[in-house]
Amino acid sequence: MGRVVEASRAPAVETRDYRPLRFGRLREFVERESVFSWLILTPPILFLLLFLGYPFFYGVYLSFFRREVTGPATFVGLGNFVTLANDPIFWQSVGNTVKFTGAATVLKAIGGLGMALVMNQNFKFKALTRALLLLPFIVPTVLSTVAWQWIYDPGLGLFNRLLVTSGLTKTGFSWLGNPTMAMISVIIVNTWRGLPFFGISILAGLQTIPVEQHESATIDGAGTWDRFRHVTLPSLLPVIFIVTTFSVILTFFDFQLVYVLTGGGPANSTHLMATYAYSLSMGAGQMGLGSAVALSMVPVLGLLLVLLTWYVRKD
Amino acid sequence: MATSKNAKTGRRDFLKLTAGAASVAGIAGAPWIARKVEAKPSTIVFARESSYVKNFDEHFIKVMIPAYQKATGIKIDYQIQAAGGSAVPQLVSMVENKSGADLAWTQQEWLYRDALVDVSDIAEAVGKEQGGWYDEIKLLSVDNGKWKTVPQANIGQLMVYRKDWFEEAGIKQFPDTWDEFLEAGIKLKAKGHPYGMSMGHGFADNYSWLYPLLWSHGVTVMDKAGKKVALDSSETVNVVEYVKRLYKEACIEDCIGWLDPHNNKAFLTSQISCTNNAYSIMVSAKRDLPDMGKVIDHGLNPRGPAGRFHALVPVTHGVFAYGTDPQAAKDFLRWIMDPKQYRPWISSGDMYFAPYLHAFDKFPDWDIEPRVKPYHKVLETGKLTSWPAPANRAHGAVINRWIVIDMFTKACTGTPTKTAIAEAVTQLKQIYG
Amino acid sequence: MVGELTWRKRLLGLWVPLALFYVVALFPFTWMAATSLKTNAELYNPKAGPLSIQHPSLVHYISLLQETNFLTWVANTMLVAVVATGISLLLGTMLAYPLARMRFRGAPLLAITVAITYLVPQSLLFVPMADLIGRLKLGNTLSAVMLTYPTLLVPFIAWLLMGYFKTVPKELEEQALIDGASRWRAMTRVILPLCMPGFISAGIFAFTLAQNEFLYALLFLSRSDVRTVPIGVVGELIRGDAFYWGQLMAGALLGSVPVALIYSFFVKYYVAGLTAGAVKG
Fold first, then answer.
1. Is the ipTM of this complex over 0.90?
2. Model pTM?
């Protein structure tokens, strides 16, 4: 029975283990693939059930109740959802979230693709560049957002100072005060933050495209643009799809950025569903209503993802 | 400064009172100072939003906390909450988690009164010894006959303006009516000195002019019983149209998103000529920008057909029931409201915080700076934002969801006036049930 | 890259865009640094050049470190991130290993359930989570976040690790089993050690996510001495009407340094992790 495993293939297993195992029957049972698997799976599943499953079901449950802070919970069925359906700010937050997610994702994808294409060349300091360009994504969102708040300041911020001193505009823009500008400002910060994530992931995808494919395309007379469209892009599609899906989910749920930059204003023009849910629950103490907003996020996101998948599959 | 004789009598009475209260609470009638020999918490956590008047917080940190520690051995952990709206979610979170501060500046207390302990003993004692409470504040702090919070002071809100710029534009007196106010603003904006009237999701600088604006036109949000929505009056359309004009023709574009700190910032960086604010702008200017400090003045809220109104911005302290030792927190609260501590503390704030006690009506500090006197008028005539309805939880929801504020900002950003009003009314009906 | 590269092509195709990316990615940090080194007089002077510093001063850093709990926040953040990452790696491995390498009834259902957890917003969970934390009497303790962060990290780590685990050939495991090792031994002594790079990259990714978390920290940690850097900086550096911009920028910069340092050592693994997930899926 005992045979030493070749060292080149795997770490040596000690000879001690080659004795017949005690509790033979029990051991045999545990060694069964399914039993072993479930035993290993038990701790993480229990943990997730307690800390993820319980809050999830409770959260869903809460959205059917009227529950104000320090107050009792009274069942209202679909009452919260009816209230939200008649709440113009709720609909505004839905629209804002979709706009924000859509615009930022498109910008990030295009920018990331561009970044990946540029980085896919040979140059010195490539590793350093990769590291530095990822910084916006690494640094805690709140901290860089605080810097952006100052950058957007109407009087002393970088943007308006540059605009005014260069003579492009007389007074600069109201980046965080004008409702339309505020949404643009928020999208800019999110794009700035997330672009490197797209860039690096797509770069990896680019680097797995076999060189032969490019070579045979060139031999067939394809120019740079054609090569890009017919060789590069199709191979990249799976990577782009996965990264985009991931990014859509995270962007859709985003809370920190808007919370710190605008608080949802001005005039609710940047209120996302996440910030509105928070505002209702923790600002107004209406926790049932806040939970209803949060629960509503799931179908809206689901719809977005279905649309995304359909759009990608179309090609 | 308060005479020592009054303070001595006050203290004696206070000691008697607390001894009585302590024995009632089941503890052998020892005066509160000696109680330190019993098992006491070593730290009491006190959460307050940071004051716009730096000296006030500093006096508390440098003078009062060490004094309390010396007297009782208890350390006060002063948790400063960032200004601009983060205090309320924090307070709600503390109440929900049943952990956090032991006592706090209980902003928006109408949301969570049930989580506060009864402080009637403290409030009644303080009222008795310091001239009695203003009636209006009782509407907030007293819930079902019991005091749930002890009012500390009112933050008066008035129109703060640049006298020099107004005079340059030919306006010698601060506008008396809302129409004059609008005209003046148009002239000033034309000269590059627009108004900055806060209309964002703050708690003071928006409510303190928008609600008085409504009231002075005979419009209230709810009726006196708090049952029927009163916002859908015919005058409301005129008021909303007025605000639209004011915003477009007299104000800086940004102000529609301003929280409470923003207008201070804009004023101190010379971007606006007038805003509704507390005394803090003048205090900051006098300290850091003395030339500007000389030309700042305060005007009463303009009057409308139904009169002149001001809003109260109450600062109250409450003790949380979840705390490990609410009684110790109450003792501390009683201590800071004792004239010996309270009067110097109020002084350090340059009357930014104006006590709701009649003993302070003739407080000498009101006379140090003549331009602060109008804030006392606010105290005399001001109303809670809930006026005339009860200051209950539903009102809290309306305030914290900015239903009425949003009505104005929606109209200013393109929503038809009638729609904005109708939407607000629907929301009010839903909240008040 | 295939194709002829002229000097001009390289300039336009590489150097110019690269410079652009550099500027865009890094200018906020430069701005942070410049602002944090200016005195208040310069900071609020509308005539001073935005990025030029006439009289550099460390006054904001000093007051940040002396007058606030900043260092405590940094220590808290690091501790929480390390512990949460450790817990998540452990649980993530236990979740990913069977799903990646074993066959058992219920595997597809479990895999789908884990995938669906991505679609659950924190916004739905935070009120019940607060209730749970309150009941467990963990409010205002670092344990509150150490236990709740893994709920965000475990599904993601599991997904990353599954990719890595799948790349180890089945034969190694089978060989070890034939040689008489138990499954447990095979897993811990044979397969997992080979996945070290995967653990490092998953761990680094989790670490950066953990120290970036905001909502739960905001809700559970209201006392200053237990706060993490994100909520401390945002929650305490606005005094009255004064946005203490100098301190805020100093705090933002200093707060970014630990994670940037750690990540710079492991960037190779970080990138590998990002791309493994995306490419190998």
1. no
2. 0.87
